[in-house]
Amino acid sequence: MLRADALSAVSMVLGPDEGYAFAERHDVAACFIMRQGTDFVARATPRFKSLFPGQDKTKQ
Fold it and tell me: For the CA atoms of 1, 28, 48, 60, what is the dihedral angle to 10 degrees?
């Protein structure tokens, strides 16, 4: 549980682009949800996609 909390904090501090790159480098399952105008866009790491197949209905 502490590891998830730490990874969440690191991702928030780094922001969506650098946080995603960090998660990808460290093989972390993460899904970043960002506001784009009036919509929301999700970007999942390869590890997240491998754990949750079929969930990739997001734009990248």
Answer: 130
